[in-house]
Amino acid sequence: MEQVERGVTGFFLLLGDAEAVAFRIGQMLSDGDLRREMGAQAARVARSRFNLEQQVSKYLNWYREILEDWKLKKKESQCAVRL
User: 50-77, pLDDT tens digit by residue?
Assistant: First the structure.
């Protein structure tokens, strides 16, 4: 849900609220300016929050954490065997 900013890049609706869904669909179909503005804002948010450099950095940090955990567990298991 971090992609959606209420009223800026989309709408939050209650599960099962068919009237609200129908209203928002009708609103988006009838209001081209709102549709274009929300689309442009959603694209801006996606580019700023999910750019390639940030994603690569997050994955590299995650892989480093996994590797460090693996090394620690391996070292602990070797110590346990020696006892």
Answer: 889 888 999 999 999 999 999 998 888 8
